[in-house]
Amino acid sequence: MSKEDAIRRLLAPRSIAVVGATPDPMTISGRLLDSLRRFGFAGDVYPVSRDHQEIAGYRCFAHLDDLPEDAQLDAAFLAVPAEQVIETAATCLARKVRALTVVAGGFAESGDAGREMQAALRTFAEVSGAAVCGPNCIGAGSFVDGYPGFAGTALAGFDALPEGSVALICQSGGLANALVAMASGQGTAFTHVVSSGNEAVTAAHEYLEVIGRDERTRCVLAYLEQLREPETFLETARRVVAGGTPVVVLKAGVTAEGRRAAASHTAALAGSAQVVAAGLRQAGVVQVEDVDDLLDAAQILELVGARPLHRVGVFSQIGGGAAMAADCLAHFGLALPLLTDATVGELSQIVSRLARIANPLDPIAGFARSRERFRAGLAAFARDPNLDVILFISVAGMRSYADALAEDLAAVADEVGKPFVSVFMTAADIVDAVRPPLRSSGVPVYPSISRAVRAMARHRDAHGVLASLRPAGDAQPLAGRRDARQALVQHGVSFPRSVVTDDAAHAVEFARAAGPVALKVAVEGLVHKSDIGGVRLGVTGDEAVRAAVNELLAIGLEAAPHGGKVQVEAQAMARPGVEVIVGVRRDVEMGWYVCVGEGGVLAEFRQDIACRVLPVHERDVQAMVEELHLAQLLVGFRNHPPADVDALVRTVLAVASIAPGIDGLAELELNPVIVHEAGEGCTVVDFVALSKEDGTAMDEALPRYEMQV
What we know:
By secondary structure, this protein is of the alpha/beta class. It is built from 23 helices and 28 strands. The protein has a 6-stranded mixed sheet, sandwiched between helices. Strands 22, 23, 24, 25, 26 and 27 form a 6-stranded antiparallel sheet that branches. α4 (about 110-130) links the parallel β6 (about 100) and β7. The longest helix has 18 residues, at about 400-415. The chain is flat.
């Protein structure tokens, strides 16, 4: 049996053993057995309990070995203490059960002993090819297949399984339970619900692979605290999204708090949150901000499907709502197009002469009192060929009036055949009342303009152009900073002529040939030379060069840890241009990522940075550059000529391609990269390679050498 087949059995078994069964509805096993009975699970159920003869109408067995010999078990739900899990799982696997749910806590989340048990469970299960939900979870189920294996308390409030077209994968059992309950309030129901817990054996991306290919699922929601295998998750998500199923993720734990601060600009500029966001965006995943955002996105993706929502027409019963909607649409980058002359002419025969016929349209208070005129005006507005979707805004305070509006709005939506999104800014009980008839016509309902527009933006992002990921190339091992420099040169990256020496006379000789030079102290382990006054720019003349070198050597001796070797790098001054920083480092969760932003000494101050998870395409790097505020300067601004952006893109690609292959590297940073005028390339003035062992600079104190590039 393949792992995917095992996951399918986990989600929708034909028979199940509940080990550690109790009749107590306050326990997970008790809730599961009650749900199996109440919702009419069609398969065989075998409660295993030494203390009871029968639970929920099902005959109990004292031990798994006591089950009938002809019992064909698809899955087992293990509600036993953590210390009994391995032994119980072994018995299940001996009976060829390859789908297990482990609800017990006390594993990796509880300390060293728990981590050892979790590792043992993982090893044990992986040898057999089993799928394991948990540990530390409340189960997984397929509601559309009639299996309520998700044993949350939320199901106690349902008379029938809440079957729908949205799937949920959640690493928190408690939040999964809350989301099922909250979703029911807006009419959203589920195909599959997975409380994945610690994911000791089966990770989120494996559930996503199976659920995302289920044609009954219109979108997948996920709450993730950690991406167990980020590269695999992103690749799986990309395939699912490319196959037409949107994936929406609420990611927790994205701050860099508690992590060791890295010693370079790149680490300070691009925190974990930004790297996670970049990786998800590259995979076509929609990342949301909170639980409301998650469920709001689910509602519009479920009801509207893949129809475009880019050009919005706003039909508002209040002028203030029209103005707020226009602002909100602009904030999220959604278009508010002009109406055609034909539409304006038709509406002028329907709405009040006091109304300004435009988009947004406020047809003046009281217009909807005539239901016939309201339907005619809304339909004429909605049929405008410049509009993809209609955002309808109401403040109906009376239940009878709101019911009539909902009925008329649903009728027009059915007649016109375009997507409608509605906002009812009124009491919660009225919003709940109008929701069912509007949902039946595919019209989502939101309690505020901002939530409705944000949901429309999520829909746009979900159905936008997917940036494909290319496979990572084979990286050749490099020894350190010197090899990195040579590799960059081989990839077409330019450095100024330079020499590294501890002899002032040698630096003077170099400067005579090179012209004005930059002089920089070179000390092993020192990253930010300017912080200790270790940089001199534009130095000319023998005496000035000699004096500057001696000053820098003295500064370096004071800064050198443990009396390390101190040298000075003399470098030909680069031609002027725009200063940029380019960096590649490895995030503890997302893996390698590349950054580009404003460089020089202002890099950390301005925080103008964009990043992408590796590997990257040329178009990814171009998009990064376009995101920067600095982009205005790169394309030419006032008296600044356009810079060589193509050369910058090539440099970023070169850095991204070689960094993962450098042995022991934690980070490679080029700062500044001087981007010259268009057609003149760019020059790397300085760079540092940091060790993953202790964060110190790799090979910073170079032997005497001279390089001409």
